[in-house]
Amino acid sequence: MFDIVVFLSLITLGYIFGRIAETRHFKSIALREQQLRSILCFSERLPPPLSEPVETTLVAGNVVISVDYFKRIAASLRSLIGGRVTAYETLIERARREAILRMKQEASNLGATTVCNVKLETASITKGKKQQIGSVEVYAYGTALIPTQS
């Protein structure tokens, strides 16, 4: 009986603190997206027609986000009946948005106004027992267009 109480207490603490951390991260992402909204991102290979000369350079953003213990258990329980695994969906959403934000921040530091040919690469890392996902890495990259002073 004592083991069950300890297990449930740890699950509850994992849920509470994981939820708090995720909420803080989403708020931080929303704030930084507002600050960097002037930098346009396109997935098209070629840039839009421009009236001024630009320099180009590669910009990138990388992030690794770990799965908390509660989400791993929730995903395992969900795999019993099938369907959407929302616990992992929020994890991937956070990672993608954070990687794009870091790429945009690098573009902003270079004075770029647009990033085109934006691509995202995703990988799962730190697989544990039974090939469970431990962390997810997202790498965002693209071509920054920096207006030249002519």
TrEMBL record:
InterPro entries: UPF0145_dom_sf (IPR035439), UPF0145_YbjQ-like (IPR002765)
Pfam families: YbjQ_1 (PF01906)
Residue ranges that the Swiss-Prot or TrEMBL entry lists as coiled coil: none
Top-level taxon: Bacteria
Ranges annotated as spanning the membrane: none
UniProt family annotation: Belongs to the UPF0145 family.
Protein's UniProt name: Metal-binding protein
Species annotation: Oceanicoccus sagamiensis
